[in-house]
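User: Once you have settled down, look closely at the record that follows, taking as long as you need, and be ready to discuss the fold:
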Amino acid sequence: MTARRRLIALATAGSAALLLAAWGFQYVGGLAPCKMCIWQRYPHGVAVVVGLVALALPAQRLLPILGAVAASVTAGIGMYHAGVEQGWWQGPSSCTSSDISGLSPQQLMDQIMAAPLVRCDDIPWELFGISMAGWNALLSAGLVLVWVAAWRQR
């Protein structure tokens, strides 16, 4: 196996492992994902498909770039989500807490009924002070480097 194929296999396995970990936290650990958690999963799925195609068609030189783009997208979403969790910036109003001052009882009830079950600005789990979104950002940034290294291999 060439170095390029090993790197593609590593990057593909990395995205697959992160997807499996997310599903494990959800289905085994009972941690329901928020909307932004789900957003972070799609690019990993794309990266896995790109990786499998790249392994099947090794002559396709640009596929590792597509894998790097997918990993970059999920890393970016993860960084944004981690910032929302830490309160560094505002997240989407559809999945974060909002100001209820000045609302009528009916408006308050409407807001409660429309609220998501899992808020994006809550941290349900963390390790060494880093949330799941933060870990996804860090590990996905590492996968970007692996994809780029695969692309650079001849």
The helical segments are 3-27, 35-56, 63-86, 105-114, 132-152.
